[in-house]
Amino acid sequence: MSSTLADARKRLNAAAQHVDCPDEVLARLEYPMETLAASIPVRRDDGSLTFFKGWRARHSDLLGPTKGGIRFHPSVTMDEVMTLSFWMTMKCAVADLPFGGGKGGVSVDTKDLSEMEVERLARGWVRAFSKMIGADRDIPAPDMYTGPMTMAWMTDELEILRGRKEPGAFTGKPVSLGGSKGRDTATGRGAYHTTRHLTKALGLPDEGATIALHGFGNAAQAYAKLATEDGMKIVAVSDSSGGVFNGDGLDIEAVIKAKEAEGSVSAHDGEEAIDGDALLRAEVDLLVPASIGGVIDEDVAKETDAAAILEIANGPVVSDADAILKERGIEVAPDILANGGGVIVSYFEWVQNRSGDVWSLDTVQERLEQRIVAACDAVLDRHEEAGSLREAAYVVALSRLSEAAQARGTCRQFGEC
Fold first, then answer.
1. Within 288-340, where are the H helices?
2. Fewer CB in a 10 Å sphere around the end CB: N or C, the chain?
3. What pLDDT, in 10s, does the model give residues 312-356?
4. One domain, residues 121 and 50
5. Structural domain boundaries enclosing 141
6. Which of 67, 91, 103, 181 is catalytic?
């Protein structure tokens, strides 16, 4: 058992103490139902051939077809892909979506590739995993270093292979090719609504909460804009190149412009410099890790001065840090709740593609808020019993998955037919 996936399973097992869940159902959820690895050949612009390692994992289809992003990043491994597919199952269950969890990836640094080489890689990924993909089976979406254009290439390649249109097989597409309005800001917007709805549970002030953002990609930028408009103060942000701090609140629009122009938030002049390590320990009302997994380990959990944490990234707090944060009274809004906005609007895109309907931006954003509020309420209902927001979220997810498994009967449920 891989260490990252084993770490993720600890939270599932903790939630099982609060749910009447048969051991066989729990065992079924401990490991992905299907994982495929492939070597993807890419013809480079100079005529040479390079092979890239790629994966796709489908964790569980108890609630519906599997759903999850594809990331192109040098650190991608099969272990990571399987773990992310597990988290996607939990995230979809918390949001009460008719999906299970899936995830895919390629171990590649796209900065070393031309745009045409990235397109060849994207199309090669589809050719390698096309048997897994479909609107009723497995629905990929963008993730790290993939985006709407990547999904456009992938959708086109699948449609070439199938000889028919299949817009619902991928989400996160350009709006002109069947993508949903509001998908680009959905993760950050969902995290913002989570913050507002969990203000009391997180112990935040009603107005003027101070926030530090570790990571400043698209989701964090959308979150920062909405939080600032609502009167919260973003006092610190960082990315892989550095960070900036201002106790009175940063000019978020100026920081975003600096990052767009120079590639780093540290290019924003006139603010105090801060690195990511110091930001994680800053004295703020809310720490928002929005970069990569595992940044809040036991040492950071012991030393952070944040009063609460909200996870936009996947798995930023390691499981061994949970008990330390709980003992210190630091509540955590977990990733499987807080960053669910992206998959919720991906669900909306899937629905629109299958129905042939097109929703307005206002409709998407209104329905996103409704879904997030409903998910938060479900978690709050189990909060006191579970003892933490994280464990409550896993209790909600496991309860829904267990109910679906048992409703199928033992033959289908346990694979004994």
1. 298-303, 319-327, 335-338
2. C
3. 999 999 989 999 999 999 999 999 999 999 999 999 999 999 999
4. yes
5. 31-170
6. 103
